[in-house]
Amino acid sequence: MDTAPASAPLRAAERAFTDLAERLWLDPATPDDAPATGAPVPPVAMDLARVRTWLLQSGLGHRDRDRAWRRIITLARAEEDWMVAAIGLAMPALRAAVRRATRGLDAAAAADIEAEVLAGFVRAVGEVNLDWTRLVWRLRCRAQRAGTRARHREARDPGLPEQVAESAAPRPPWGHPDLVLADAVAAGVITAAEAQLIGETRLAATTLGRLAADLGVEYKTVHKRRHRAEARLAAALAGGGIGAGVSVPTTGP
């Protein structure tokens, strides 16, 4: 059951999306990067609710999904209503990001981190390179990273009164794997892209094969990239420079 407060940022964003859903439409268009015989994206004019359903269907190829998102991002950069639309269209991905970034927090603390996730998504829409693939995944990763960084800051400096701070143990997520990855990026052990790769394939449900296919590279390329990053991460963990008292899974295919 959803126990988020009514004022939770994503819930408010979903209400704003619903208000726009029937009056804002995405018309079919053939993107510049589509083959000469390529179908328009989307195939017919759709209101926002239908666009979201269409984007989420399992049979939609990642190239067409990216082409649609390039249009959505371009519109969102120019019009506020389309930024609201972009947030709503990415809502399933944003909810997944929030679940990971707020695990174990009470409602008030979770709402603060949720706001950071949402702000991170908006920044990412404005900054993401439209030539990249798997655009919505990249937007989600940046949004989640914003939430994780905010939670990390709170865990390191919760702002408790001095007498409480001296006696209280750090609250979760002290030592959470996502935060270890953030620490490793900050320390220069791995890059942000490598942290995303490890996080998605070790901590989430994305397989290396699926990720390689979506990125348009060979499986062995992604496998080697992750292996090298994990070797550096394991050495840093063993040396005690980051993530004391926790481990990130770095074994498996």
From TrEMBL:
**Disordered: region residues:** 148-172
Q: Which UniProt keywords apply?
A: DNA-directed RNA polymerase, Transcription
Where on the tree of life does the source sit, at the highest rank? Bacteria
- Give the GO cellular component terms, alphabetically: DNA-directed RNA polymerase complex
Q: What is this protein called?
A: DNA-directed RNA polymerase specialized sigma24 family protein
Q: Which organism is it from?
A: Streptomonospora salina
